[in-house]
Amino acid sequence: MMDTKRTTFNNKLLPYLLLAPQLIITLVFFIWPAAQAVKSSVEREDPFGFSTVFVGLTHYKRLLADPNYLDSLLRTGVFAVAVTLLSMGLGLAFAAAVDRLARTSRIYTTLLVWPYAVAPVIAGVLWWFLFNTSTGIMPYFLSQFGIKWDHDLNGTHAMILIIIAAAWKQVSYNFLFFLAGLQSVPHALMEAGAIDGAGPVKRFFTIALPLLSPTTFFLFIINVNYAMFDTFPIVDATTSGGPAQSTNILVYKVYQDGFIGLNLGSSSAQSVLLMLIVMVLTFVQFRYVERRVQY
Amino acid sequence: MMKKLVLAAAAVALSATTSLAATEVTWWHAMGGELGKKLEEVAQKFNESQSEYKVVPTYKGTYPETLNAAIAAFRAKQQPAIVQVFEVGTGTMMAAKGAVYPVYKLMADQGEAFDTKSFLTPVTGYYSDTEGNILSLPFNSSTPIMYYNKDVFKKAGLDPEVAPKTWKEVEEFSKKIVTSGAAKCGFTSAWITWVQTENLSAIHDKPFGSLENGFGGFDTKFEFNGDLQVKHWANLKKWQDEGLFKYGGPVGGDQAATMFYAQECAITMNSSAGRAGVINNAKNFTPGFAPLPYYDDETKEPKNSIIGGATLWVLNGKDDATYKGVAKFFSYLSKPEVQADWHQFTGYLPITNAAYELGQSQGYYAKNPGADVSIKQIMRGTPTANSKGVRFGNFAQVRTVVDEEFQSLLSGKKDAKQALDAAVERGNTILREFQAAN
Description:
Chain A is built from 13 helices and 2 strands; from the N terminus they run H-E-E-H-H-H-H-H-H-H-H-H-H-H-H. By secondary structure, chain A is mostly helical. Chain A has a two-stranded antiparallel ribbon. In chain A, a hairpin with a 6-residue loop joins strand 1 (about 45) and strand 2. The relative contact order of chain A is 0.13. Chain B has helices at about 1-15, 35-50, 65-75, 90-95, 105-110, 120-125, 150-155, 165-180, 190-205, 210-215, 225-240, 255-260, 275-280, 320-335, 335-345, 355-360, 365, 375-380, 395-410, 415-435, and strands at about 25-30, 55-60, 80-85, 100, 135-140, 145-150, 185-190, 245, 265-270, 285-290, 310-315. Chain B folds into 2 domains: about 20-140 and about 305-360, 3-Layer(aba) Sandwich (D-Maltodextrin-Binding Protein, domain 2), CATH 3.40.190.10; about 145-305 and about 390-435, Periplasmic binding protein-like II (D-Maltodextrin-Binding Protein, domain 2, 3-Layer(aba) Sandwich). The two termini of chain B are about 35 Å apart. In chain B, the strands form 2 sheets. In chain B, strands 1, 2, 3, 4, 5 and 11 form a 6-stranded mixed β-sheet that branches. In chain B, strands 8-7-9-6-10 form a 5-stranded mixed β-sheet. Classes of the chains: A mainly alpha, B alpha/beta. The interface of A and B includes residues 243, 256 and 260 of A.
């Protein structure tokens, strides 16, 4: 580990003062809304807030017995895993390719980072255009292979569409981190491998990849969180959760039930459950996956 | 994101404090594009007509977004004086008794003349309580009609001046259109829930829900899984399989308009407020306008169709001077010339009889054939309990459910009966939730 220098404060108040801005932001923008969500998840309230009744765990019980909610849970799992695998796989592939370039690597890096600058909703609209059933180029292209693309009615097509759109946006991010990771792999190790007769592929898988494991672990957490929380605009701009709820992932369902349906109690209960899921996932990742990661 | 919101809020607060001597009346609305410009023009003309009050319209996004913004603002005590709420939000607004200042009461309190009878009955019926009091001011009301492509009809060997009257004719015409290659699909439709379910029920005088389609109270149940609706949904699925019908997408079904403009589909069914869009986009063909089709083996005399669109609700918690301004503004909005201008520009229905008569005397309907199809359709016959309208709490959520079940039908996961039964069952759960909360 790094050698850290210990700083001591003479004034007892100063450390708290220095921490205050961050603490206030965390309290106001994270803890307080989360507490509000927990509170309204055990209440039933009309939209305007005239009558509020404490209903205990009714919303939770109803959700866990609702086949639509359980379906949404399953879909979110499929979606998160697919987005994470696809965006990390592509990010790593691009990083490995660019890492081998000597002169043009800067150009490729710049180009590959571009999608990250695109706002999620624009990314959604972009892919929605490309896959538009009546005017898009992709359905036309696919029809040459006898595939009738119809994400308005075909749930599988709709799911593929949001996975592609969500993963596309995240590839840049993964690419950057993987590239930085690859560039910090000591040359001596690679050269030693080469002298021992390992080819580039073998060197990549036996030397670079294990050394990348902290980066991979970090990106894994980031990507799962991204897929669970930040993909709302993409779903909203492409499928709006349809057809027949086949792309209604948890974070979108929270919005639909709360903001479209004005069912605040159930929507809050859903967001609390979503929060718990991510907390458990992160815990599991740190507790069990991290052990196998070499820093 | 949060930062931007705070900045925006600060900007709003600042602009509010710099108001002039005139009393400001805030008006949140959901009209984007051309309609939004026209709306702002209406407000501006009112402001120019007098100096005491200043109506400030603010665009708040889509209908659901506007409703949500108003609710959030009300909870934070920052509500606008007037908010435009779409027809599916009516149940929610009516239940929120403490938040709403009923329009009939406002006008009476402020001593403004307000004659319920001067409005078109089907329009006011939708927005009145059981005693016949108008709770919100009808502003932009529309009803679905049929649009068809006269050039494609000609190509298919059909008379371009004769639109299909019944669903049987829609089927026959569509077959001719598709087999002759005049167009790829016979017909499409926007708003499956509103047009092909709610309006279908009303036109055939069949209930959509119990207790007079929800007008009678919160203890209502959906009943739109009757024989007629099942038959119609089954037909739509059959026609889809035969290539006669094409699905336009969920909620508003935006693809329907696109397919109609691109001459892919020869017929579409959409809100009468789509008229301006059709005229603007029908560059290479002549559009025709006709009433919605019906099943002639179910009824010989189709009832009036029901309306959609939005009304203006007044929110509680403002001072008397503001309400005085609101009342004056509402009187202005109800003027025949203001109404007629808005109706003729947008394709929304004229709200008052006087506005309709003004249009007639101006010769507007003679010059613009088809512009009165919507009016005639909502005025035909006497409205019954089944054709008065629909009023349910959390109805936006129910519409989503109906859309989803329709998709299950089209993708072959369920048959028409199963899909409608499921929609009714899921819809009833939502109604019970609403009933419990209110």
